[in-house]
Amino acid sequence: MSENNDMLSVKNLKVVFPNQMGVVRAVEGIDLHVKEGECVALVGESGCGKSVTSLSIMKLIGTPPALTRVDELVLDGVEMKDLTDREMQHIRGSKISMIFQDAMTALNPVMTVGKQIDEVFIKHFHMKKEEAKKHSIEALARVGVPSPEQRYHDFPHQLSGGMRQRVLIAMAFACEPKFIIADEPTTALDVTIQAQVLEVLAQMQKNNNTSLLLITHDLSIVANMADRIYVMYCGKIVEESPAYPLFKDPKHPYTEGLLGAIPKLSDKNHEFIQIPDNVPHPMHKPEGCYFHPRCRYATEECKCQMPPLVDIGDGRKVRCFHPLSKGEKS
């Protein structure tokens, strides 16, 4: 079982999507753990399996189309892997919530945002409509929605992208769950609004001592939020580390590439660094290390064998035959 201070423990999660052409191996045996009150980031490019991982933790992926296997899926001491859909309905919202990446599609377009938040309180606390309305307005106020009494009656299309995202955060925190998954919560928002939404999310997490799994493709987003970071590539964890050491001294070439792609004001060359090529199609992954076709450090060993995820001490793990040292960084 998971450690006592782990709010979430996931062991050996595998998710595949069989089809007529073969099998899509979206997630290949990953382990995750998040402690109480901790913010953990799951980082990787689009197509690496991050969202599939989050939906699997929430048990929102049906069978079919997916086949999911996990050795352990424990939330706050409760094993969830064998729970039924009806049992999960009582847990979702009250103990674990999710903030989806596209607020326009996550919200019901024909219901006011207030009524949608009401449903959370009515479902889990069995409140009357008037009481639920009062709590919904308070929830909107907590996430910084101006004139919450007025916005309560608005439909999603009447709100800006940033306001819609705040509504999703209000819904996620409504029942004060112990664990929240934020799946690309700032997608399609401009930089200023993105910073505001992240500030609201960080403040809500701190005030409620909530455990947070923040999923993103952008390492710069998590620089000031995450306590620990998992880097994911092609369905596998390639690096795990506390946040500060990872930014200061990345060990996996893929992590180095993600960090190099972040624009920096201090960059005297004014060059945008890009990882070559694209993430392989999940049905056509290369032999050996999945990253080797894009890696400038790849050797023959990398092309033939999959490196194991090795513990290198100080809470850090890396899946690489030739972990980077400080002198090798560009």
Describe this structure in words.
The chain is α/β, with parallel strands linked by helices and 330 residues long. The protein has a domain at 227-330. The chain is 32% helix and 23% strand. It has helices at residues 50-57, 85-91, 103-106, 113-125, 129-142, 148-151, 161-173, 191-208, 219-222, 243-248, 253-260, 300-304, and strands spanning 6-19, 22-35, 39-43, 67-69, 72-75, 78-79, 96-99, 179-183, 211-216, 228-233, 236-242, 310-313, 316-318. An eight-stranded mixed beta sheet has the order 7-8-9-3-10-11-13-12, with helices on both faces. Strands 1, 2, 4, 5 and 6 form a five-stranded antiparallel beta sheet that branches. α8 links the parallel β8 and β9. It is globular, with a radius of gyration of 21 Å. The mean pLDDT is 92.
Outline of the structure:
This protein is of the alpha/beta class and 330 residues long. It has helices spanning 50-57, 85-91, 103-106, 113-125, 129-142, 148-151, 161-173, 191-208, 219-222, 243-248, 253-260, 300-304; strands at residues 6-19, 22-35, 39-43, 67-69, 72-75, 78-79, 96-99, 179-183, 211-216, 228-233, 236-242, 310-313, 316-318. An eight-stranded mixed β-sheet has the order 7-8-9-3-10-11-13-12, sandwiched between helices.
Secondary structure layout:
Blueprint lengths: L5 E14 L2 E14 L3 E5 L6 H8 L9 E3 L2 E4 L2 E2 L5 H7 L4 E4 L3 H4 L6 H13 L3 H14 L5 H4 L9 H13 L5 E5 L7 H18 L2 E6 L2 H4 L5 E6 L2 E7 H6 L4 H8 L39 H5 L5 E4 L2 E3 L12
Parallel strand pairs: 3-9, 3-10, 7-8, 8-9
Antiparallel strand pairs: 1-2, 1-4, 1-5, 5-6, 10-11, 11-13, 12-13
Helix pairs in contact: 4-5, 5-7, 7-8
